[in-house]
Structures are given as C-alpha cells and as structure tokens.
Amino acid sequence: xxxxxxxxxxxxxxxxxxxxxxxxxxxxxxxxxxxxxxxxxxxxxxxxxxxxxxxxxxxxxxxxxxxxxxxxxxxxxxxxxxxxxxxxxxxxxxxxxxxxxxxxxxxxxxxxxxxxxxxxxxxxxxxxxxxxxxxxxxxxxx
Length: 142
Prior knowledge:
Blueprint: H1 9-59, H2 69-73, E1 99-100, E2 110-112, E3 125-127
Parallel strand pairs: 1-2
Antiparallel strand pairs: 2-3
C-alpha cells in the first residue's frame, strides 16, 4: 500500500465541485426564506400599527388620528406605540417607517387614510405597494 500525504488535485476539485453544487441548489431557497421573513415582519408591523390606531380611536371617543398620525400615536409613555415600525416589500422597495397620507400607488410606505374616499375609509392603514408578495397577494390589499 502506498502511504500518501495530503489530498490529490482530483480529490480537491471533486470536493470544490460538491460544495459549489450544494451552494447553487440551496442559495435560492435561502434567499426565499429571508424574503418571507421580511414579509411576515411587515404584516406583523401592519397589525401593530392598526392596533395602535384602534386603541387611539377608543381612547378619543371615536376620533381617528389626524394627518399628524406619527405625533399622535407615538408618545413618551408609549401608550399607543413607542415608535413607527418598519415596512419592507422585498425586493421592490427599501425599508422605511414613513407614513404618508396621499398614496402614490407604489411607494412602499405606510399609507394612512385621513378622509373617506370611494375606495377607503378614514382611519384605514395599508401598504402603498402594487407588487405581490411570495404568495402572489398584492401588498396594498393587506
């Protein structure tokens, strides 16, 4: 029997090829898992903001926050919410926590309805994005 020290070039190349194949197979799944986690976080943040609006509505005798929703919901004591959470619609928009009152149709920001319209009622909050998530649901329908 031959007693070898180390690995041959062929063995190293085979090991590299195996690692490369595994990377190519698993990378798309990893990216999809990360995207789904961002989507779930954005949906949970939407629920938290809607809950804060509902509590504000109850505390203020049926009055929704005005267009200055950030100042009205966030307070030093954190009664309604301590900070405005982030929204992220990957890969279409950047992460933001901005709330706008005039939807652009595809800004990727929170939108707060300050008056009744044909489509929305005063006090509604949604995500201003016309793209779909990984399940095929359009973001602005949440």
